[in-house]
Design brief:
The protein is of the alpha/beta class and about 220 residues long. It contains nine helices and six strands. The longest helix is centred in the last third of the chain and has 24 residues.
């Protein structure tokens, strides 16, 4: 029930907790805190067997190519006893704040599970509001297999959403930058205006609006 600042070797923490009898371990992670457009996505995963040797390929989504993440998305789902994916809209982020909704997304991902939960491991920081014993793990997406699995589900889901946005709004280039504040994205906003999926509470977007460079 705290932040664990050193996760150790991959799977080491999960082995310790499993040995204590906490066998239904949920890994939780999110994708999309940084972009100024698009949703925040959180995922929770309970793997059927955390220590299956085949899970060696599961890793922090940021360390994997887009192609490999897509391949592992289906693998994680087939290896899960249960999983949950939660989306938080830009409007909710603007209304309630990024940090509040980030926490709520991860909590909702866990509470959406029907499977018994013994322990929750979250990436980055501890959430006292979790409905079960939980620990935040610093760089948990690199050290915990279950968190890494959740990171893949969250990242791939969000990337797919932004690819869909690219089809709807092709001039903004979402397929390339996924809603991050790339120069081409900022220039498109100034030229074509804001979309419903833009986060108006973000400082760079608010600045553009304040300067009257878009509507």
């Amino acid at each position: 029930m705290a932040l664990i600042k050193e996760g150790g070797a991959r799977g080491e923490l999960e082995k310790i907790f499993t040995a204590r009898g906490e066998r239904n371990i949920v890994g939780v992670d999110e994708a999309g805190r940084g972009p100024c457009a698009g949703p925040l996505v959180a995922a929770a995963v309970i793997l059927k067997d955390i220590f299956d040797p085949a899970h060696e390929q599961i890793n922090d989504s940021k360390k994997l190519s887009a192609k490999k993440r897509e391949e592992l998305f289906d693998y994680v789902i087939s290896s899960a006893a249960e999983y949950s994916i939660i989306e938080i809209s830009s409007a909710d982020i603007d209304t309630y704040g990024l940090h509040v909704m980030n926490k709520q997304a991860m909590i909702n991902a866990v509470t959406s599970l029907s499977h018994p939960v013994d322990l929750v491991l979250t990436d980055g920081y501890f959430l006292s509001e979790m409905p079960a014993t939980s620990h935040g793990v610093w760089k948990g997406d690199s050290s915990c297999i279950s968190i890494a699995a959740a990171s893949i589900l969250a990242k791939v889901t969000r990337d797919r959403i932004m690819d869909e946005m690219d089809q709807i709004y092709p001039v903004y280039g979402f397929k390339d930058h996924k809603g991050y504040s790339a120069t081409s994205h900022m220039e498109a906003i100034k030229k074509y205006g804001l979309l419903p999926i833009h986060r108006r509470s973000f400082s760079n977007i608010a600045k553009i609006v304040a300067e009257g460079e878009t509507n």
